[in-house]
Amino acid sequence: METGAGGRIRISMSFGNWARRARDETLPLSHRASALRSCVNLYAPIGFRETLSLLRARAGLFEHDGTALLRALDELETSRNAWLVELDAYADRRRAEKRRGKRVPSDGRPRARWHVARREAALHALRLAVAGRWPDGPETDHVRRCVEACVEGRLEAEERRLLEDSAARLKECRYPRVGLTAWEAAARLLFLVDMIGEVDPPRE
Length: 204
Description:
Layout lengths: L1 E2 L5 E2 L4 H9 L5 H14 L5 H12 L6 H34 L18 H14 L8 H12 L5 H14 L9 H20 L5
Antiparallel strand pairs: 1-2
């Protein structure tokens, strides 16, 4: 429950509640599709627009097909459930580390990932990025070049060096020191760097 503008109370529904609405065949399909989009708003491992696009590509046009909607929801829930298992395992590790007096985590909290056809999902996100708008920034050209090379299957050693250098510099962008706009741009570019790693992991 949240307080909205003017002091009005706004009910904030959980992923599970939205999923139940999406499955409710007594509701109009448009309402069920809207509920699915609300699920994606809460769990969008490759971005909101990208996750919806991937669900359409893998399950069908769920806005117009109830069967496709159920397939899309099943895929989304399967991926989210796998991520929740990772979060539980991470929480167990952190509790064990704290009992041993280790206050700094030995590994980072697992980020939301697409656990169903992971490589396909990352490649889908990169293809949409190529055709979309790019943030302004000193590393944009380097990252864009590497994204395009990855999508075309020609990511070579030179691009990998560019990517590593750009990622290192982007990680130095910390809000509020650099300002919100620069921080958002850096976060977007780092997300794309991560997607490249999903598609074409660094070679040992």
